Amino acid sequence: MADPEATLDLALWATNIAVPVNGIDAWAANVDAQMAAAAGAGARLLVMPEYAAEQWLSFAPRGLGVREEIPWMAGQSAAALEALRPLPARHGMALLAGTMPVAREKSPDNGPLHVNRAHLMLPDGRVFGQDKLCLTPSEKNPHGWNLATGDRVSVVQWDGLRVATLVCLDIELPGLAARLAPFEPDLVLVPSMTETVAGYNRVFSCARARATELFCVVCAVGVIGAAATGEPRAGY
Q1: Residues with Cβ within 8 Å of residue 76, at least 6 apart in sequence
Q2: What's the whole-model pTM score?
């Protein structure tokens, strides 16, 4: 049980993915700068939003089709995680590095090959992945992003706290909260991306409901803007 008198200062970074970057190193340098600023203000955890990795599309090959975006981003993920890996120890704080597409460890025949995964990176070097469990229609569209669903929720022990991550739509599921309740989480992190005001209100209203049901702190953060690809973004 967490110390009821303990406090944790954290920072929520509503990343503007419309700002172009010229490569993974430049993207990671921005994360480094945000962590430095947050640590300087006393934060011990920086939370980035869902699909913060979509900012990478600003340096993707021109003409990349919607069906090619997820495989291309997944191809950058290993380098991105490697670039971020030293930052938690450097700044003495944890990082929820938003979400990024990654290849599934085991893919069924003719099934989706990628998942939308959040990564919680701790100062002691541990890294925990959490796959999104409930996908939007565009995420699971076989003619679009064609992502696969995750199959479990992990509760991470860190600094005397039990921490869970529920990605965007997952926070809207009361049944999932009921299954999480026996593990008595102290903190639930919700990286989110929504395209409409209605979507924003669903996620953040449900985050408040889950905080009440689970008797814990729920922290949600979303992106700003749309990826600067130079290509039309409608229909995905």
Answers
A1: 24, 53, 56, 100
A2: 0.93
